[in-house]
Structures are given as structure tokens and as C-alpha cells.
Amino acid sequence: MKKRRTFDIDLPEEEQTFPAGKDQPPSPAPRRSPMAAAISENAEALRDRRALEDRIRAENDALAAEHVRMKRLGLIVDMVALEAIDCWKLVRDRAKGDDLELAELVASIRDIGLSNPIRVEAREDGRFELVQGFRRLAAYRALLAETGDAERWGRIPAGILPRGEDLEGLYRRMVDENLVRKDISFAEMAMLALNYARDPQTAESDADRAVAELFKSAGYQKRSYIRQFIRVMDRLGDDLRFAPHIPRALGLKLAAAIEERPELVAQISAVLRDWENRSVADELEVLRKAAGQEADAEGQGALPVGTGAAKARPAARAKTTFQVASPLGAAKCTAANGRLEIKLDRDFSALDRRKLEAALIRLLGDIA
């Protein structure tokens, strides 16, 4: 019997059929190994992280640029310790004498707080120089002295200006802010122009030209009034206790009278010099008499006699300003008739009294 031979036959795979109108499904994606999948997922996560970091970096750059812009404008406000603020760089516009409205400002700040921060300039030594807000700073210092509450009144809100702005620009900042104040007087504006011209660190030494630089925002007529008040304050500023109360009309008339009759300066000084208990009305009465606004029976412009001796002074008193270097820093000095003023970035009240007295005795002995 013959054996049947067996053959291996490769049959084609059975073809799949689909109903009419149906699409053939896509071929399944090739299967990746676990390592390849992990590498792909990690790369995708790194791309997302880099994109997020780029967005954060761009936002930080924009915030930094905005911070620099606002800082240049003095709009960055921080709480600054009163003891870290100095008032040496700029000569303030406030005339010496009384400040009748400071008590009102103190009461307002005590009740509702400070609505308008002061402005200071940052210094290299970490301290700050006052640019705007002398009265607000004075009010905070008064509240600190009154209450002893350093937690509440030991620091003041301050817009911080960056270092590097020229001195003329800082003066302009102070002046422009004060021009919108209703209570600033022509006498105070005149004193600011005088002090600006006397400051050894400013380029301008003529007070009249200083008015044009400092008060650019003011009208021509107002600048003209300030220049007339300069005539009065330059000659009588040291003797006037209530200069901010001089009305505009009286100041203009007094300036004209002094130009016409220079001897009036000595007469006014003689009356006011030792009259310690005079009032605002007393001082204004003396000035009115000198200006010829009122006449008495003995002659126009006769001055009332105060409690002090009527010893004549020179009609014009020269003033010398200069700056000297010292181990404590640059000292600004003003020398005038009967007055020697030294301004230095140092708290002299903290010095030992005997040491300070000895230094003054040596100074006076050397110039005697």
C-alpha cells in the first residue's frame, strides 16, 4: 500500500470585508518601547517648562522696567525712618519765624493720616535727603515728640527719587510743588530765590536770574512780584519775624520805598532788632509806616519806636557764602553782619556741650 505524501501549502490570509459605505480603520500605530515613551514625555515636559520660564522672564523684565520708570518719577513709596532724613542739600522756602498752620497740619495728620507722601532723594550712604514736604516732615516729628510713639510716627511715607538728579532739578521739584500751595507767600518765594543764588553748589549767583530758573511755571507778573520782594528780603530778611504775613501790595510799596530811600533799612532794623515781644500787627505797622502807607502828624513814613534801642545799621549788609572741606564733609557757610552760619551734615546736638563750646571759642579767637 502506497503512503500518501503531505505538502505544506501556504494559504493567503483571509481578507476582511466591511459593509458598504464604511471606511477602513487606520492601521494601529507601531508600539513603542517604555523607554522611548518616557524619553518623549520628558522632552515634551522640558519644552513646556522652557516656554513657561520664558513667559515668566518676560514678565519680570517688564515689571523691572516699570519699577525703574516709576522710581525715576518718585512714585515708589516706602516707609522711611524720620531719623534717616536730612534737610541739608536744599535750602527750604519757609521763611524763619512762626508757622501758624503747622498745628492744624499736625491735627489733620493725627486724625486722618498723611494723604500726600513726602519726596526724598536716596543717598549713597543709605540716608535720604528731603526734596518735598518740609512741613509734613515737621508735623511727623512734632507728633513723635508729642506722643513718643515710634511705631506710628517714627516712619513717614516717602516717594523715593533715585540718585543723580542735578541740584537745579531738585530745586525745581520743590518750587513747582509749592507753587500750587495756597499759603506760600511772596516773601518765602523771594527767600528761596535768594538762598538758591547764595548756595555755593548752584550755578546761578544772581537772585533775579534765579527767579527765571526756579519759577518757570509761574506767570510773568508773579515772577515780577517775587523780584520786588527780593529787594525787601535781601535787606530786611534777618530782622523780619513775620515776613510770610506781608501782603503783596505792602511788599511792593516797601520795595519801591527802599529803592528810593535806602536809609529806611537802617531805621526799620533799629526798631525791630530788639523788639522781642512784637506781634504780627506790630511788625506790619512798622513796615506800613516805612512804606508811607500811613502818615502821622510829624511827617510821612515816621516809624514807631519799639522796646529796643534805635541804633542805626548800615543800609546794605554784604553777605558772603562759601564752602569749605572738613573731616566731617563739605560745610556751607554764610557770613553776614552779625551772623555766621555753618551748615554741615552732622547732628551737633549730639556732641558734648563742652567740646562744642571749646571749638567755638577757638574759632572766635582766631577771627577776633
TrEMBL record:
SMART domains tied to this protein: ParB
Gene3D superfamilies membership: 3.90.1530.30
Domain ParB-like N-terminal per the UniProt entry, residue ranges: 81-179
Segments for region (Disordered): 1-35
Any single Gene Ontology cellular-component annotation: chromosome
Coiled coil region boundaries: 35-62
A family per Pfam: ParB_N
Signal peptide from the UniProt entry: none
GO BP field: chromosome segregation
Entry keywords, A to Z: Coiled coil
PANTHER family recorded: CHROMOSOME-PARTITIONING PROTEIN PARB-RELATED
Protein name (record): ParB family chromosome partitioning protein
Source species taxonomy: Bacteria, Pseudomonadati, Pseudomonadota, Alphaproteobacteria, Rhodobacterales
